[in-house]
Design goal:
The chain is α+β, with helices and mostly antiparallel strands. It is 39% helix and 20% strand. Strand 3 and strand 4 form a beta hairpin.
Length: 196
């Protein structure tokens, strides 16, 4: 691991206790979050997440004995240690901070802002466009990304996407790889062209 540790306060951020921020190289932008969790018997777990990964969860979990003595006494990595890794908590932190970091480091990758109330056909076309863009970028949880970026609940974001689909602005499609994909309809594209 030849990453450069970054000071989150330099960006105005205060990460939760036990979390650190890294760049891939000296002078690089924030790219990796790593959380450290005690799992007992002199061992700890490192939960790693890459900011630009196409999903919002850990990319690696490593359990490490702090000393050779701890490793010898614990009989190596045990099932209890693995169960002691708080993946749910880690996922919550990762989801919040990955979106926050992406929004500041790569604002062009964040969902476009929407009006406070989504009501007009054009508003729903914008919802459809963001959903399609996130799907095409490989985002596995586009609804959650949209909800967090727009400051609404997951249910509200999901309802907006459903309404866009019901209004004929969004087509959900299957794929040969088994993953869903989505496409804007001509009606949505026409509404969005009004911006140009």
């Amino acid at each position: 691991m030849n990453w450069e540790e970054l000071d989150p306060t330099a960006y105005g951020w205060k990460l939760p206790e036990g979390w650190r921020l890294y760049a891939y190289e000296r002078g690089g932008e924030p790219a990796i979050l790593v959380g450290r969790f005690d799992v007992g018997e002199g061992c700890y777990a490192l939960v790693e997440a890459h900011v630009h990964a196409p999903f919002n969860g850990p990319t690696r979990v490593t359990v490490i004995a702090e000393t050779t003595e701890a490793a010898n006494q614990s009989d190596g990595v045990t099932v209890e240690m693995m169960r002691g890794v708080p993946l749910g908590e880690a996922r919550r932190v990762i989801t919040e901070w990955v979106h926050r970091i992406r929004a500041e480091v790569s604002p062009e990758d964040s969902p476009a802002p929407l009006p406070a109330r989504v009501e007009s056909p054009r508003d729903y076309a914008m919802v459809a466009r963001e959903y399609v863009r996130l799907m095409e970028a490989g985002e596995r949880r586009p609804i959650e990304v949209m909800a967090q970026a727009w400051g609404v609940s997951r249910n509200t974001a999901s309802a907006r996407v459903r309404r866009a689909r019901n209004r004929g602005l969004l087509m959900q499609m299957g794929s040969t790889t088994g993953r869903l994909s989505a496409k804007l309809t001509e009606a949505a594209e026409e509404l969005l062209r009004e911006d140009e």
